[in-house]
Write a structure and sequence with these properties.
80 residues; alpha+beta; two-stranded antiparallel sheet; 4 strands
Length: 80
């Protein structure tokens, strides 16, 4: 996959997901214009015997630790 997509720009990373029904891969480019060129050229084409759908997915932002709700008092009475 890296070779196919590298024709359109600088590929930063390729991550293939093998498990699950629809086979999937995430390819990251160094710029949005390179990414769009790859989408325009490869969407609907055949790679390794499969017709591919090339589309943009949102980048997962780093999730900051959210403060926990509650007052931390607990319900345990300690009886026993």
């Amino acid at each position: 996959l890296r070779k196919k997509f590298a024709k359109f720009g600088s590929v930063v990373s390729v991550r293939r997901y093998v498990k699950g029904a629809p086979r999937r891969a995430d390819i990251s480019f160094s710029s949005a214009s390179e990414m769009q060129a790859a989408i325009d050229a490869l969407n609907g084409t055949e790679i390794e015997g499969r017709t591919v759908k090339v589309r943009v997915t949102p980048v997962e932002e780093e999730v900051s630790e959210k403060p926990k709700k509650g007052k931390g008092k607990g319900k345990g009475k300690g009886k026993g």
